[in-house]
Amino acid sequence: MQTIAIFVAAYRELSARRLFWLALGTTLLVVGIFASVGINEIGLTLFGLNGASPFFNTNAMSPETFYKLFFVKFGIEWWLGMLATVLALVTTCGIVPDLVAPGSIDLILAKPISRPRLFLTKYATGLLFAALQVLIFSTAVFFVIGIRGGAWEWALFLAVPIVTFFYSLLFSICAMVGMVTRSSIASLILTVMAWAAISAVTFGEWLTNQGLLANTMDIVACERVLADTTKPPDEDRRAEVEERLAHAMESRPNWLTAHGWFYWIYVGLPKTAETLDAMERVLIDTAKIPSGLKGEAFSGPRVFEPNEATVEEFQAAVHEQSASRSLWWVLGTSLAFEAVMLWIATAVFVRRDY
Predict the structure, then answer these.
(1) How far is it, in rounded angstroms, from Cα 324 to Cα 201?
(2) What are the tens digits of pLDDT across the range 216-257?
(3) Is residue 7 part of a domain?
(4) Are 7 and 118 spatial neighbours (Cβ–Cβ below 8 Å)?
(5) Is the overall model pTM greater than 0.85, yes or no?
(6) DSSP 295
(7) Range name among 70-79, 100-109, 236-245 with the lowest pLDDT average
(8) Residue 305 DSSP one-character state
(9) How many domains is the chain built from?
(10) Looking at the domain assignment, is residue 54 inside a domain?
(11) 193 lies in which domain range?
């Protein structure tokens, strides 16, 4: 009962802020924009205005498929995965600093409740706001797709736990910084900076991994060409392949070193991008989007390509390697990072003399 009382009080305090209702109002506005976009035999429509498109029309895909793809690419990647997350951080960044503010902390510590439970209850309040925001968005989009697309897709509600988990990875940083600095502004700024650093390391690992994979495939393909006795290459072709093989072998140690550094840093960080990618995979599979429209959406753009191996082989290898990192590995390493952040924040809260 004590925990529930603190949880309810924290929620009331949060909902009393104008920013809370502004964030929820913005979510409904985004849903309105989502609902205003339509598709017909010519192309796309927006607020009744038609725009011709050779790719997005009812001759190329059904309204059901269009709205599902629109939710995956716009709803998850841009709104829930970026803009709504920033809005939620702005709204909730003051929860922990307000907890330890002079005057407030004296009254709270007078209650017969342990400090770890008190801090984690306040932390859960921030996650509740994120879950509420995602739930409102998913519910509204569920009815939009059902009414306009003719498909009642219950899998959309998987966004609530997955996006809340994604948000918790960043909010744990915000809570830890807020506990140490006691500043809402510092916790917000440093969390956004940490998010940018995590994204940079993730991109660096992805980039060097693609380069290493292309280098490996080049070496294997060149050796296969040189070892082919049934169709041996002519002298010019052999010289060209030998030169490429020598160049690939020379650059391989650099790729191994670069990727190794990025990978081991990446392992210890929360997998924010891969968490959202997992959400997209689940929705695309459960929503039964035609395979021709899926593309290689989760492999990212191709920066490197092997000279000897085909583009199709390289795409397949990149996709296979991306899928080899299981969801449990993504969740496990991310949860370990979050646990460390919460342990630091809780330890500071328990040991600090107020």
Answers:
(1) 19
(2) 888 888 888 888 777 777 788 888 888 888 888 999 999 999
(3) no
(4) no
(5) no
(6) T
(7) 100-109
(8) -
(9) 1
(10) no
(11) 63-354
